[in-house]
Amino acid sequence: MGRVLLAAPRGYCAGVERAILTVEEALKRFGPPVYVRKQIVHNTHVVDDLTRRGAVFVEELDEVPDDALVVFSAHGVSPAVKGAARERGLRTIDATCPLVTKVHKEAVRMAEDGYEIVLIGHAEHEEIEGTLGEAPERIHVVDPARTGEVSPGRPQKVSWLSQTTLSVDETMRAVGELRERFPDLVDPPSDDICYASQNRQEAIAAIAPRCELVIVVGSANSSNSRRLVEVALDAGAKAAYLVDRAADADERWLDGVETVGVSSGASVPDLLVTQLLDWLAAGGYADVEPVTLTEETLTFSLPLELRSNRRPG
Ligand code: SF4
Predict the structure, then answer these.
(1) Can you tell me the distance from the alpha carbon of 271 to that of 200, in angstroms, rounded to the nearest whole number?
(2) Is the CB of residue 63 less than 8 Å from the CB of residue 23?
(3) Model's pTM, two decimal places?
(4) Phi/psi of residue 178, each to 5°?
(5) 127 among known catalytic residues
(6) What residues flank ligand 1, with Cβ below 6 Å?
(7) CB atoms within 10 A of CB 130
(8) What is the tens place of the pLDDT at every residue in 22-33?
């Protein structure tokens, strides 16, 4: 019979907790429908659950009727989207994670100081779209694995920023490559990769070398969840998979496996991990050893619009 190493921290981070609570509180206070631009967090289960309770998820603001209430997702939005909402007179609540807002502010300041900004991240991700929108003429997005492709206009005045959910090791490698090309490269004032991504990566890296198999619970469009699979493989797991829910796991993965590592992305409710542990227990992996690297205590207060008595606008 095999055993399970259960990584901690895993699951919800402070930004995701706040974003989900924001939609729940908006539904309670203002009643459905509450429109949400993009998935509030990148998790199918969370989105389905909020949809059942009256949230309406849309891709763009033109799908939101006039006079409706719209919540911006945890990944952040560009000033252009906020401006378009204002122009249409939509009522808005901004659930952008404060740690994403911090990167937006750094981008604005660096652009004001005259830097060409290399933004390391995945161009198709909503967070990168939002940050890019702060200074589109100054920001150059580059994938961490393809730093050679970026060519800022003034190579003597270059700084860098990153997506909050990247792998720490891959980002540091990318920065090293950039520094070889741009020796005067200026660092951001503090790490952009958020505490939650770092903690989850460290925890999975600690268990991975002891596991023949690692299963990460998370949706395929969740950047931080996908990074956990990569970190597990880099750290020595023989195999690692991402599953949205227990039903997606495959019994054949367990062939010849003695130790299974389990973790989950920052947007994943712990219920989904419990269901995976139940599935593993039914397959003979009932012995669960929690491995906790760090205790997390950070919480964020709700957006201003939900802290006061005023109507969002
Ligand atoms: Fe904020 Fe990090 Fe959570 Fe993203 S993963 S919502 S940046 S705390």
Answers:
(1) 17
(2) no
(3) 0.95
(4) -65, -40
(5) yes
(6) 13-16, 74, 97, 99-100, 164-165, 194, 196-197, 224, 266
(7) 26
(8) 999 999 999 999
